[in-house]
Write a structure and sequence with these properties.
285 residues, alpha+beta, Arc Repressor Mutant, subunit A, six-stranded antiparallel sheet, two-stranded antiparallel ribbon, 9 helices
Length: 285
């Protein structure tokens, strides 16, 4: 399987962490992961077969699959996991938005975009549909990347941003949810209720819910990028009080236990990408 990670063009870098993608080899079948809730959003452009949702097992024990997702779709999971079916002919480019930055690209309220795949045409109308069709027709990665980034530049509205909310979301994300809400509001010279209203309007979540997701996201990411690391030590290092706290959050957000999820994940892939290097570049996968 071929994988890549690229920084976006400079005008998009304040808003988008990276563009990345996978492409299966001829005849290769890939066990795709279960996607878990997190604090970000991902926009997928498929130029081969789109993802399918793997449902409950049928009578023969095999996972039943839903209809395919749209060829280009947005995923912003917040409260539910999404299991993807094993498949061949994988080929996609994904846009990873920085936490809280999706709202700079669409006027659709953030809460309306949560927890289910949204067709790019439902979010961006005809321009989204045209971009998806162009990506599907393109012959090279260079063409696809140009089409996607030019589309995003045309949708970008920096004036929509709320700098204080951006700062709040960034602090929560970088601290792995380790900053309490009251001190965060004080740091930004806002009242707690004012901060809660503004973060909810911008992200579709309260600061407390976002804090929880940041902690969960960073913990799961660390566990999957370092499979041999002790689970409890990793959870405690990322802000959980104890094992019960970690298991409670994991059950609520992943709908399973950490042990069961990690056991199943060991036989599949995951979409947690490598970190940026100290100079801001992206390490090769």
């Amino acid at each position: 399987m071929r994988r890549f990670h690229l920084l976006p063009i400079p005008p998009l870098q304040p808003y988008i962490d990276r563009l990345w993608g996978w492409e299966s080899a001829p005849g290769e079948t890939i066990a795709l992961p279960t996607l878990l809730p997190g604090a970000g959003a991902e926009l997928y452009f498929h130029y081969r077969r789109p993802f399918r949702h793997a449902g409950a097992a049928g009578d023969d024990g095999a996972a039943l699959c839903s209809a395919p997702h749209a060829p280009a779709h947005l995923l912003s999971l917040r409260t539910v996991p999404l299991a993807l079916a094993t498949m061949a002919e994988v080929g996609f480019i994904a846009v990873r938005f920085r936490s809280g930055m999706l709202a700079c690209f669409t006027p659709v309220p953030a809460a309306e975009l949560h927890d289910r795949p949204r067709d790019v045409a439902d979010v961006w109308g005809a321009p989204g549909r045209q971009c998806a069709a162009g990506v599907a027709r393109a012959d090279t990665h260079a063409e696809r990347l140009t089409l996607i980034q030019q589309f995003l530049l045309r949708q970008l509205r920096p004036e929509r941003a709320d700098p204080l909310v951006e700062a709040a979301v960034d602090i929560l994300y970088r601290s792995h949810g380790g900053v309490r809400i009251e001190p965060l509001a004080d740091r930004l010279h806002l009242g707690r209720r004012q901060l809660e209203r503004r973060v909810l309007a911008w992200t579709g979540q309260t600061p407390a819910a976002l804090r929880r997701l940041c902690r969960f996201h960073h913990t799961v990411r660390a566990l999957l990028l370092a499979p041999g690391a002790p689970g409890l030590d990793t959870a405690l290092r990322h802000g959980y009080f104890d094992q019960a706290h970690f298991i409670h959050d994991f059950r609520a957000l992943a709908h399973t236990t950490p042990q069961r999820f990690l056991r199943q994940a060991s036989g599949t892939t995951h979409f947690y990408n490598p970190p940026r290097a100290g100079d801001g570049t992206i390490q090769a996968p």
